[in-house]
Amino acid sequence: MSGVKPSARGGGRPGDRLTGSQVGFLLALMAAGAAVSNPELVARYRLSLDGADRRRLGELGLVTSRRAGRSYVHELTDAGWARCRRELSAPVPEERVVIPVGAVYALLAGLGRHLDRAGLGLADVFSPALATPERGGPGLAGDPTPVAGHDGPRPTDTSGPTGSGHPRGSGDPRGNGDPRNADGPTDGDDPGADEAERRIRIAYGTLARWPGDWVRLADLRPRVGTDVGRADVDEALRRMNRARGVTVAPDEDQKGLTGADRREAVEIGGQPKHLIMIEG
Questions:
Q1: Per the record, which residues fall in region Disordered (predicted)?
Q2: What's the rounded Cα separation, in Å, for the pair 126 and 120?
Q3: In the predicted model, what is the mean pLDDT of residues 146-165?
Q4: Counted domains in the chain
């Protein structure tokens, strides 16, 4: 123990605030990518999720913990995955937050595995990102000077984790719920990935019960419109997944997948993704 009083890290609502240790547990479980017992957490990351931390993460619906013999087995929920995704783009907290070193090395190991699988180097991941006005980022577009405490927006190039529920998104600003009737370019037979992203966001708004709700791609794709090619929709989904506030994820309940779920999935990083979440 450091002797420093744990500081809370915000999560959107005061009641959702977590300590650095609790954030570290979430990140370690994310890096594990599966249910993990306390003995496994200790062996891998020198961490053990017990007591108040276990109860707190369970009360917030971020982690499920079940007894297996004499120890607990922990696993991230859909909300836990979404919280981890937000942490990846969160600003540096003003107060001192101590995240366990084991969680840091869990993330590093996960990053290393991804680089190896994708054949990428560190420079492919860690490159300057310029803030743009439309993303609401700090600074001005074209100004490479970094702003302290901010990551800036994700690159908007065109390359490129289940289902549960959460007030409804705004959807079509005119309220008709049809992405093809909203303002924006509609001419031509191939609107492209930019138009596809616009349609995706509007369709999401008609399906989501509130910002941050999980929506199935099997439900979303038909609402995008047949005049937008599948390749453009896939490209837009991959690009959106790299941006702040959007997560495209697999459904962990593989046995519950329907034919439509499998057919309408988008492949990202060699894995089919069946769900999308867009924060408000």
A1: 133-194
A2: 11
A3: 36
A4: 3
Same domain, 77 and 171: no
d(CA 278, CA 271): 20
Q: Are residues 170 and 266 in the same domain?
A: yes
Using alpha carbons, select from 184, 275, 170, 181 the residue that is nearest to residue 225.
181
Sheet of 246-249, strand order: 214-216, 275-278, 246-249
Is the torsion defined by CA of 130, 133, 134, 135 positive or negative? positive
Indicate if 83 and 37 belong to the same structural domain. Answer: yes
Question: For residue range 10-26, what is the model confidence (pLDDT) as tens digits?
Answer: 544 445 688 899 999 99
Residue 46 lies inside a defined structural domain of this protein: yes
Per-residue pLDDT tens for 42-58? 888 888 898 899 999 99
- Residue 40: what residue type? E
How far apart CA 65 and CA 51 sit, in angstroms, is: 11
Domain extent for 151: 128-155
